[in-house]
Amino acid sequence: MPLWDYTRGTELHKRDALLGQNIEESLKNLRACLAVGRFDRAEAIFRRLAKQSIFNVAEVLEANNTYVRSMVHGLFRGQDGVALRKLQMWFEVDMRQLGISPDATTLALMCRSAFLLASEKSRDRTLRRYLCIAEEAGILHETIESGEYLPHEFNQIARAREDLFEQLPEEVDQTADEVQFSSAPVPAPPAVVLNPASQRGYGLETLLKGLRSLHTDDSVAQLDDHQRSNWQISLEEDIVTAELERWRLEHAAILKMGINPALSSKSMEALMWEWQDKLTKEIKAYLSSISKNSPKYVHGDGPYLEQIGPQKLAAITIIETIRTLTCEGISDGAPVFRVTDNLGKSLEMQSSVDNIQNRQETKLRHAKSGQRNKMMKTLRVNKGIETNLGKGGLIPLETKLARERRSDEWPKVARFRSAALLLSKLIEVARFPKKQTNVESGTKARVESTLAFSHAIIRVNGKKKGMLYVDQELAKRLTKEPPPCNMAHQLPMVAPPESWSDFTGAYLRYPANLMRLKDPSGIQDMYLHAAIENGNLGKVFAGLNVLGKTEWRINRAVFEVMANTWNSGEAVTNFPASNPSLELPQEPEESAIPLTKFKWKRECQRLQNEYNGFHSNRCYMNLQMEIARAFLGHTFFLPHNMDFRGRAYPVAGIFHHMGADNARGLFQFAKGKALGEEGLFWLKVHLSNTFGFDKASLEERAQFTMDHLDDIKDSTQNPQNGRRWWLKADDPWQCLATCFELLAAMESPDPKEYISHLPVHQDGTCNGLQHYAALGGDELGAAQVNLIPKDRPGDIYSEVARLVKADVEKDSEAGNPIAKILHGKISRKLVKQPVMTYVYGVTYFGARAQLQKRLDEIIVDSPSNEIRNFTIAVYLTKKVFTHFGTMFSGATRIQHWLAECAGRISTAVTPEQVEKIRKLNMEKERQAGKILKKKDHFLKFQSGVVWTTPLNLPVVQPYREVDKTKSVATALQSFNIFFPSVNDSVHKRKQMAGFPPNFVHSLDATHMLLSALKCDQLGLSFASVHDSFWTHAADVPTMSRALRDAFVEIHGEDVIGRLAEEFKTRYKRSMYRLSCPSLSPLGLQIRKLRAERRKGYGRGKNNLGAPVKEKLGRDEMIDEYDRLSLLQSEDPAERAKGEAMVTPGSLFAALGPEHHDLLHPVDLQKLLNPEDTSAASDHNIDAALEEEMEAAPDHNTDDAPEEEIEAATEEQSEAVPGVKKAKRPHTKTYFWVPLTFPTVPQKGSFDVQIVKDSTYFFS
């Protein structure tokens, strides 16, 4: 875990308005004050933080270095509020008073401050003093090698202590320290022009400005690696600079429009400029009114708002508010929480850009160390100084940058308060001219200035909800313009990505994160950083690097057809029409019934949403087309990162090969390869696959292509005005790309020598089921997903449809009315979705809904029908699940085993929790039953499912219930904000439902990365779209062998057995709850034991004031834990003591395995049913401890013999006429046992080695 853990939410010992709520908020307040030059406030925060005992030494030192670094940077920039004398006093006096010893980073920063001295003699003397301090502390090596220096500064330090080096460094030009981008090509005008989609705002124009350096001539092909890297840095700078200046474009456009003297006809642009001007003045006045010495400034929004500035704040507030309202449905208003949250995130992102640039400058300074490395080698040899490298003496630069990156995030409270403040001021100043007519008097309409926005509190389901509304007249004006369009910062790269070796990488100037984290508690982040620091992710890094180094280019022939189609405005393939024609239904008469009017309004809304969807898609595709146009003629790269399961995705957000068909059709490998002996055949197969003829044998697919050779020629020669055969394909743009490639190869003098650039795909057959079949050893299922060699490819969907159809026909002949309705209607399409989503954990209810949706397409569902589609879907779901379960019986057992393991883990308590509960029990006894709420967080089930993939990637399921909320009062309204933490309780249902599909996804991610490594070793170009793998046509046979070998390598081992062993190790000494029938022999024994123990506590409440059931429940848990600990002891006496203890767990263990059927098994379908709201205590240990105690009635039946209990039960069950029989609330008895896992299901007879001979495994 990193030394400085920003995921913690530890409460400060004493609430301090200056510090904030917790460590995280305090550190962010510290950095925010430093960012705006408020060194006095930052110093006050640091002094108070240093006195908090919750800080460890490393954290104090790191915070101190942050403060010192900011002062040094401020001195070099000539910033007000900081002086060299103040820095020296801090180092010489204040740090000693606070008990802080300088480390190598502190001394390196102080060395750098010496360069501010005017006298060279004073500078050298000061440098030697700081270096002597470092030498005495044994950290001289680390101090000299620090990445804090610029190259010319390092050389002067070396000259100041020339006695340490064998040779002096060469002189370095100080101007060389600045990053130069002069090698970036000179822009040239683009060859193709695209008709832009009308968009509000400047998203498209901003993108075009950022891409301007890509419009070059062909001379870029001669650039070396260093020049391409500089070009890439320039491109990243252009994109970010263009995005930063986007608000200026909005501002300038509004100003250019001017303000119309006729108030009633002001344009929206003029209105927005008016709002911008007024809001800027309001923000300036607010910032001036805050006393910068008050806690409100630091703990409030002062330093955060100052980082951005009034003009930017005003522009972002207006643009984000209108954007959110538009997305929510501007006429219906938007929740204030949503508007405030979006605005706060935009403000946070804006403020982080400068910090990103500063971090990258530090990283670039550290990277330029060729001469420095040589010098350091002579230092080691000459002086033999012993260093602390590898012993924790230095914190790696990447770790420091990662910490600073996390600190860029604003505290949630500050984010919401800042956003709400700005929104409230916008509501105050935003007005627009509105015509007001007095209907009663008939007076002439007059123009009045009206509030544009209004804030109201409404009630929804009994709860208060703040809403932001737009005046209806203004809403009509806004809806006439299309919604704004955003652009992503990351684009394809013109230089090879930086290899992954840490949590950040890929892009050179603004690096991306290795993982797309979805766990707000930060647990996944901790596991990931630990794996990186332990060197466990070598193969994961290597696999991602293989994907990132693949060179791409744009398919010019396809792009030209696409551009012409785009400019025509015609709706072709997935291109929406530029002006879609949607005819609104006729408005009903005034006298029409309310239902008719409601249906008309609903239909109008549906058409409006459909139109907005068309336009939104066209705006998005416009951005894709412009990026493709900019990269025409260039080689580019797509860096990849991964999600929490290890599945790889391109970092570029808009344009990549995982996009829709139109995007995939534009991608070619930049490096071509001759087709050779088999390449032409695979091009033919690929064309057949893209067309949709992919269930036949390979030879039949190739013949299909030859049978349509005339159509292929027509598609390439006249793609827009010919027969348009390619438009009938499942993937038309990819089909067209293959048509161009195939025809060019066939018309070449020697097709074998034709250099092909087209990626040829090999797709898995329902890849998740392939993994399940291998895990369960299902021969029947393996045959249908092509794990077993066959002459023709298997098709699981067709096979399930065939079996269901046969069953339906039998039932129809037997007179079943539902089967008669389904006669002749069972098809592959009907059953495909529930079969396909089985691997994702689809429930019975989900599958029924999927089938009903398909049935609605083929059977008219009318209330007059005797049998409704719902009933038919229920019947059909049972058939599908029955036959699918038969084919994948082993896989079904594996899925249930995974879910049950997740259920046990999510209701387990760890040894650490038990020890804390023991301590809490003692504290409660000392405090006479007072509950210490702040320490009760460990009374929740906190064990989530964690496992390790075959490539050593730790996977943490992020499903938790956020337990901590806080009501935050803002200038607008109060918000209840969630604060995720590692102490949040797990969400049992999601942990169970998510584990089977997530585990299989982690396996297919492993298969992909392993395949990438094997293909790279064989010299193949490789790309993937999850379970679709791409390479050159000539290399398809080689890649296919690599895919099969990788699959066999994974499943050749006992994957589930290894997982079971990992669980046993990871959750060792944990306990979980079991249950048995209360009136079973075991249940009666446990109740009798509890009755005897309860006598020692007294009746009702014990003399300490704690509830008996709570005390008994906790004591039982602690006793069982102690018993298990004693049994595992090496001391015979302690083991004997443990054997003599009697607990519910020992009573259960004494029964032996043959009686374990008394336990209530996990009802998977019930647990996965989202409509089931039972088990309310799933995440609370105290509720679990108390649950079984509630069963005991006042007359205490725990002492009664079994016969009396049975007689009483029978007596209570007799029906009383006219009286509704009461439902017995409890039928189970719960008790704690060691966390064990069910026996791994027996594997079927399928041998995975046979996959190596399966032609259609991927095809």
Automatic annotation (TrEMBL):
Gene3D superfamilies found in the cross-reference section: 1.10.287.260, 1.10.287.280, 5' to 3' exonuclease, C-terminal subdomain, DNA-directed RNA polymerase, N-terminal domain
Enzyme Commission number(s) of this protein: 2.7.7.6
Membrane-spanning segments: none
A GO CC annotation given for this chain: mitochondrial DNA-directed RNA polymerase complex
Protein name per the record: DNA-directed RNA polymerase
Catalytic activity: RNA(n) + a ribonucleoside 5'-triphosphate = RNA(n+1) + diphosphate
GO biological process: mitochondrial transcription
Residue numbers spanned by region Disordered: 1190-1221
Coiled coil: none
Compartmental location: Mitochondrion
Function: DNA-dependent RNA polymerase catalyzes the transcription of DNA into RNA using the four ribonucleoside triphosphates as substrates.
Keyword hit for Lyase: no
Primary location group: mitochondrion
Keywords per UniProt: DNA-directed RNA polymerase, Mitochondrion, Nucleotidyltransferase, Transcription, Transferase, Transit peptide
Sequence similarity: Belongs to the phage and mitochondrial RNA polymerase family.
One Pfam family here: RNA_pol
InterPro entries: DNA-dir_RNA_pol_helix_hairp_sf, DNA-dir_Rpol_C_phage-type, DNA-dir_Rpol_phage-type, DNA/RNA_pol_sf, RNA_POL_N_sf, RPOL_N
